[in-house]
User: Fold this.
Amino acid sequence: MNDMYPELEDYIFNYCSSFWTPEEGKAWKTYNVQVNAGSSESVRNRAVEMGWISQDPAVLALLADGYPAFRSNVARRIWTEHRDELELNYCSSCRKIARTPLAKQCRFCGHDWH
Ligand SMILES: [Zn+2]
Assistant:
């Protein structure tokens, strides 16, 4: 199971955030605050003032290619650097990743381990 696939990327991004770097955490927050601020200039300015929207070039560079690329890059970095440390909920039948850490049914093959 060395090959990355979209469901594994999603799982690692969503459930392995303890392996995020501080910059990745700030990038995630920056993205979400920007989405929530929408087109409101005053909300945006306030968020920058509060430090919720990062001005750090290293953080902004992580988002330069868009949010989907950011998610994918974070997941792939974690996979490359921490593969052996990750607690991944694999299906015992087909060895693909479950939907969540607590899932007990495989979305790929339907195997059920309740
Ligand atoms: Zn399965």
